[in-house]
Each structure stands twice: as C-alpha cells, then as structure tokens.
Q: What sequence folds into this?
C-alpha cells in the first residue's frame, strides 16, 4: 500500500486553515500600511513642492510598470537583507520566521501603496475646491479639515478603487509563496506535492480564494452604500 | 554592481529565448483571450440561460482566484490528470500537453477571456438598441449587424480598458517561471543560480519590463488613435484592473 496517497484533504485541513489565517493577516496588515502609504503618496503628488511631487510620481510609475512578481522577489531579498542587518546591529538573533512575515507584509504594502497613491490622488482631486475653501473660511485646522471634510468627501470616490485593490491584494498574496513563505498557497503546494493529489488541492485553493474575494466584495458593497448615504443615486450597481 | 555576465553568450541566449517566449505568450494569449472575451460576453448577453450562467460562473471564478493558483491548477492539476489517461502519452497532441508553454498560454487566454469578457459585456450592453435596429432596417443580416456595427461600437466604448488589460497581461507573464517555462524571469533565475548574484539579473529584467511596458503603452496608444471614432487617452500607465465597474460610458 502506498501510504503517501492515503493522505487526503482532511489531514491537511489544519495546516490549510492556518495558512488561510496567515494569508488574511498578511493581506490586512499590508492593506492598512498600503492605505497610509497611499495617503502619503497622494499628498506628495498633490504637494506644491516639485521634488516631492517628482519622487511620488517616480514611485507610483515605476512600481506600476514592473510586474508584481518581479518586484516581490527583488524587494524580498533587499528587505530581508535590510531587516537582518537591523536585527544584527541591535544584537538580536535573526528570527527567520518573523522576518519572513514582516518582509511579506512590507513588500506587498510597498506595491499596494503605489496603486493606492493613484486611487487617493484621483479621489482627492475630485473634491470640489469650494468645500475645502469653506472649511478654511470656518477656521478649521489642517487636521480637522482633513478629518471632517477631505476624508468623508473623498471616500465615496476612493472606495471602488480601494475595493479593487483589496481584491487584487488577496490574490497577490499567493505570489508570496514563490519566495517560500508559508502562507495559504505555499501550504497548498506542499499538500499537493506530498499527497500527489494536485488537482484536488489546487481546486481547493481556488475555492478558498474565491470565498475570500466573494465575501470581500459583499462587504465592500455594503460599505460603499454606507459612505454614499445621502448622495443622489446615479446608477445602480 | 556586476554586469560582466552579460558578456557570456550562454546567458545572452537564455535572455533572448526568455524575451521571445514572453512576446509569444503575450501574442497568443492576447489574440485567443480577446476572441474568447467576445464569446463570453455574447454568451452572457444573448446565450440561452444555461450557457449564460456558465459564462457568468466562469467569469466569477477566473476573476476571483489568483492567476498563480490557476496556473498551478492547469499545469499540475489538469496536466497530471491528462497524463494518467491511458493512450494520451502516445497520441499526437502529447508533445503539446507536455509543454509548459501550452498551459501558460491556456491559463492566460482564459484569464484574459474572463476579465475582458466582463469589460466587453458592459460595453456591448451600452450600445443603444436603436443603432442595431437601424442596421437591420438597412438590410444588414444579424451577423453583419454584430460584426460591423455592434462589436465595433462596443470596442469604441471600452478600448482604453481593453488596452489596459493587455498591459496587465504583459505584467503577468513572469508568473510562468514557476512552471519552468523559460521567460525572462526564469532566465534571470538561472543566471542568479549560476553566478550567485542576487540583484543584478533581476534588476536587468525589471528594466526590460519597464521598457516593454512603455513601448506597449505607446503602441496601444497608436491603436487607440487609429481606431475609428476614438479620442486618444492621456493616461500614462493603466491603473489596476477595474474589477467592479467594467466600463466607463
């Protein structure tokens, strides 16, 4: 009897669940950091200071013109080298597992930030100037103006792009497996190789990713309805 | 930075082969994918209910799962399954079924078919019915109305989105290095393994891709400019693919 082929989907349910959680953790963290990077990038692209504008344009253009897989591999080596240098300099023993997770998040966030920059820039530019001038006329501080006017006015425009980027990010996390970090798709590859049930496990991977993207779509649809409340409905989704 | 390996004719050959394979894969998948997209879009709009639902399901699955997973599914999953069918290994199509290029092209074709099919569906649906009725009134056959009126009008509406899809396709090509197909990234990986250089080969192909993206963008802009009735778009690089709202009109 060949015991290898006796292993089935159920034996791998635990590791696959663990991998799914890791994938979601990576995606959520990378998304949050990407959002911040996108806001910074968009502010820089709209800044009156030319060198800052040029830097942000270079960042978003270069990242968007090079394939993600290539960027992820390049940045992964660069990132883990930098991280190891930092931990060595601090006299800490190099923790490979944590380094892998941190670089995976960092790399995806860096790529995500470039796309987010463009989404945010477009959404901020779509805010009517009069609203910002009104905030200034009422004596809002810069922070209040950002929090009370810019963000609520920008969100309806930014949300479709943001939901796109989230879906793309979930799918891009699979690229991390190429580096050898144990997230969902890497676990699936191990399972497929060990049981030789390639068809079964890759189909299962598809189902899991599909569940993630479909439920995210449903969530973002509700969120979009929420931020658009009080606005005239242009066209139905 | 050490780029002395560029002198080596073996490495040059890898890079050239990778470059050519990249272009072939791009061409085959673009042509096949766009043809499939038209079929998918029409199936969803005009097909009988079961066919329309099949097309819808296909679109949802292909757009909801990572391309890398699809590539592995077809190459390792379906590929190994085909291998096991008795007689397949002796058949004339076996050399094709063994070739990673076939699976790469298949996966990309299906992916382009799903994404662009969704884009085209939106565009086809927004061509006013009156234009098609006018075509019929002038005595065109239903097929002529489709080929000479409906489809060209729809393409006019979403050409920038479709050309954007082509650039995204170009940027997906490095994924095939994971199924041992010699593309530019695979060439770089081999060179890295042999020269122990971590960054230089990757940086070279990042540069090549940057150039290819720029060239393809310029070429596609010319296509847009010469398509009848089109205003050239001013965008530099496409934003990420629009997943929720297929087409602006």
A:
């Amino acid at each position: 009897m060949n015991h290898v082929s006796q292993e089935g989907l159920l034996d791998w349910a635990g590791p696959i669940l663990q991998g799914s959680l890791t994938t979601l953790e990576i995606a959520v963290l990378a998304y949050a950091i990407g959002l911040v990077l996108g806001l910074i990038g968009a502010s820089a692209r709209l800044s009156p200071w030319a060198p800052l504008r040029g830097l942000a344009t270079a960042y978003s253009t270069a990242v968007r013109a090079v394939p993600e897989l290539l960027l992820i591999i390049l940045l992964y080596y660069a990132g883990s080298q930098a991280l190891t240098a930092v931990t060595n300099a601090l006299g800490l023993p190099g923790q490979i597992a944590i380094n892998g997770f941190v670089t995976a998040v960092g790399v995806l966030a860096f790529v995500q930030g470039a796309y987010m920059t463009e989404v945010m820039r477009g959404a901020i530019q779509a805010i009517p100037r009069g609203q910002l001038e009104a905030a200034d006329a009422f004596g809002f501080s810069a922070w209040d103006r950002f929090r009370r006017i810019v963000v609520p006015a920008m969100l309806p425009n930014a949300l479709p792009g943001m939901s796109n980027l989230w879906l793309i990010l979930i799918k891009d996390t699979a690229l991390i497996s190429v580096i050898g970090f144990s997230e969902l798709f890497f676990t699936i590859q191990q399972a497929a190789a060990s049981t030789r049930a390639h068809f079964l496990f890759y189909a299962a991977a598809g189902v899991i990713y599909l569940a993630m993207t479909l439920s995210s779509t449903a969530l973002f649809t509700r969120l979009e309805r929420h931020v658009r409340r009080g606005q005239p409905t242009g066209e139905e989704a | 930075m050490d780029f002395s390996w560029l002198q080596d004719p073996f490495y040059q050959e890898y890079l050239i082969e990778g470059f050519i394979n990249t272009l072939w894969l791009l061409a085959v998948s673009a042509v096949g994918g766009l043809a499939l997209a038209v079929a998918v879009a029409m199936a969803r709009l005009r097909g009988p209910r079961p066919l329309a639902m099949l097309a819808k399901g296909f679109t949802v699955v292909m757009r909801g799962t990572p391309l890398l997973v699809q590539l592995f599914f077809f190459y390792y999953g379906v590929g190994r399954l085909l291998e096991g069918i008795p007689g397949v290994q002796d058949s004339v199509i076996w050399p094709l079924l063994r070739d990673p290029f076939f699976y790469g092209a298949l996966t990309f074709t299906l992916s382009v078919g799903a994404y662009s099919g969704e884009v085209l569906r939106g565009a086809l649906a927004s061509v006013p019915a009156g234009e098609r009725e006018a075509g019929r009134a002038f005595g065109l056959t239903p097929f002529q109305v489709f080929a000479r009126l409906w489809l060209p009008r729809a393409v006019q509406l979403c050409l920038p989105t479709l050309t954007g899809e082509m650039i995204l396709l170009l940027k997906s090509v490095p994924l095939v290095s994971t199924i041992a197909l010699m593309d530019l990234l695979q060439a770089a990986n081999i060179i890295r393994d042999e020269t122990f250089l971590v960054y230089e080969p990757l940086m070279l192909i990042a540069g090549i891709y940057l150039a290819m993206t720029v060239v393809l963008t310029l070429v596609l802009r010319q296509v847009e400019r010469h398509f009848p009735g089109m205003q050239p778009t001013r965008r530099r690089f496409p934003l990420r693919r629009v997943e929720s709202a297929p087409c602006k009109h």
Observations:
- The domain at 4-227 of chain A is CATH 1.10.3720.10 (MetI-like fold).
- Chain A touches chain B through 52 residues (CB under 8 Å).
- Chain A has nine helices and no strands.
